[in-house]
Amino acid sequence: MMAFSEGMGAISDNIANQNTVGYKRVETLFSTLLGRSETASTGSTTTSPTLRASNTQGVKAMTRQLVDVQGAVQITSRQYDLAISGKGMFAFGVLDPETAEVSKVVYSRAGDLDPMMPTTLVGDQLVADTRTFLANKSGHFLLAQEITAADLLTPTPPASADELVMVQVGDQDAFAGLATTTASLSAVIPATGSTSVGTPIFYIDAAGDQQGITLTFSNPVVVAGTSTTWDVSFIDSNGVASAVTTPVTFDSSGQLAAGTAVTITDNGNTFTIDISDVAMLGEATSGQSQAVQIGYTHDGVPAGAFEGLIFREDGVIFGRYTGGATQPLYRVPVAVFQNPNALRQLAGNEYEVTELGPDGGGLASGLPSFELLGTDQSKMVLNAVEASNVDLADSFSQMIIVQRAYSSAATVVKTADDMSATVRDLMR
Question: In terms of CATH architecture, what is 182-298?
Answer without folding.
Answer: Sandwich (2.60)
